Amino acid sequence: xxxxxxxxxxxxxxxxxxxxxxxxxxxxxxxxxxxxxxxxxxxxxxxxxxxxxxxxxxxxxxxxxxxxxxxxxxxxxxxxxxxxxxxxxxxxxxxxxxxxxxxxxxxxxxxxxxxxxxxxxxxxxxxxxxxxxxxxxxxxxxxxxxxxxxxxxxxxxxxxxxxxxxxxxxxxxxxxxxxxxxxxxxxxxxxxxxxxxxxxxxxxxxxxxxxxxxxxxxxxxxxxxxxxxxxxxxxxxxxxxxxxxxxxxxxxxxxxxxxxxxxxxxxxxxxxxxxxxxxxxxxxxxxxxxxxxxxxxxxxxxxxxxxxxxxxxxxxxxxxxxxxxxxxxxxxxxxxxxxxxxxxxxxxxxxxxxxxxxxxxxxxxxxxxxxxxxxxxxxxxxxxxxxxxxxxxxxxxxx
Length: 399
Description:
Layout (H helix, E strand, L loop, with lengths): L8 H4 L20 E2 L11 E3 L4 H8 L4 E3 L11 E5 L9 E5 H15 L6 E4 L6 H12 L3 E4 L5 H11 L3 E4 L1 H10 L8 E4 L6 H10 L4 E8 L3 E5 L11 E2 L4 E5 L2 E5 L6 E3 L7 E3 L2 E3 L2 E6 L2 E7 L4 E3 L2 E3 L1 H9 L6 E9 L3 E9 L4 H16 L4 E3 L13 H7 L4
Parallel strand pairs: 1-7, 2-3, 6-7, 6-8, 8-9, 9-10, 23-24
Antiparallel strand pairs: 4-5, 5-15, 10-11, 11-12, 13-14, 16-17, 18-19, 20-21, 22-23
């Protein structure tokens, strides 16, 4: 385990400090600390390699920047670029203002208690916007930051326990790997979960791994940042109430949001999938509002039509992950001469094919139920922790 070294505050005051606040850029809180680091390599923004992570993080405080991705930087003064998760294609470049993230830092300081002396950890690579957000927010609010992306899940869990980290930003896929790794219980007081919903099996495992933690799921997107946030009064199937400062409306099943946290545009030649309408933004997610809570159906881009009925694979994946002995699950469409397409399940775990198919038929009905079960030896994942659907199809010989 690395020893904790000098405070960043000492660097912040020096004339040549790479963390010195620049006009329109992120600023380092004078009490911010980064575990195990005495010095930083020079950094001044620009296009940054995601390794080494310390150099990338230093550069993020040095002016307009992007971590990872190909092509030139289009961000100007007071701006930066992040990447989408790219679960069904190449990651897109997201151009946003520094202020669009800073606006939520103060909200989260109040909601989650992030501030001086509080240990905050991120598990993913800094090219993923969730990990980058958690890291930059922690240093901006004066917290003690722990970067754990270069560790195996069992080592991540051991380090979280040894350092008694309080707040963790993670995706369900990252949490699942730590739960499966086993180890001692963690002293976490809050786990902030983004990227997808927790299934009941993972939620139970998380409760055993971090018994003192308040677990809060949030729904968002690289283009929109926070959209909704769960709380103790939220129905299990919902993704919570609108995050403070966010307005949500649903038009013909499509979710539209308006807030101070939205991105500016896509950078590069890719036109992207988000759409603007009179100040409102849609990222193509379908769902509904009910009694003040937001419920998701799935992405319009993944929706398939089975025998003239719209079906969302995400709904079926969530069901599969709640079954006993299913550790990983994805649902993919396959051509069907009668129905147009039918669905198949790709899983990892000890559950039998017959048990999986029977459970789906009983709960989901004939249209939504997968017609076959496939298995892969290794589960392909993106740096964000989401399933790499393109790589999964390639592994099955469908691409």
